[in-house]
Amino acid sequence: MLKTLLSRVREYKKYAFITPLLMIGEVAMEVLIPTLMAAIVDVGVTNQDMDYVFRMGVLIIIAAFLSLSFGVAGAWTASKASAGFATNIRKDLYSKIMDFSFSDVDKFSTSSLITRMTTDVQNVQQSFQMMIRICFRSPIMFIFAIIMVYHNGGALSLVFAVAIPIVAFCIFLLFRSTYSSFNNAFRGYDAFNRVVQENLNGIRTVKAYVREEEQLGKFEESAEVIRSNFRRGQTIMALMGPLMMFVTYCCMIAISYIGARLINVGHMATGELMSIYTYTGQILSSLVMTGMIIVMLSISHASMVRIAAVLNTKPSMDTNPDGVREVADGSVEFDHVSFGYGGRSSVLHDINLRIESGQMIGVIGNTGSGKTTLVSLIARLYDASEGTVKVGDRDVREYSLEALRNEVSVVLQKNTLFSGTVAENLRWGNPEATDEEIKSACDVASASPFVESMKDGYQSHVEQGGTNFSGGQRQRLCIARALLKKPRILIMDDSTSAVDTATDMQIRKALREDVKDLTKIIISQRLSSVMDADQIIIMNNGSIEDVGTHSELLERNENYRDLYETQTRGGNLDD
Question: How far apart are CA 364 and CA 473, in angstroms?
Answer without folding.
Answer: 23
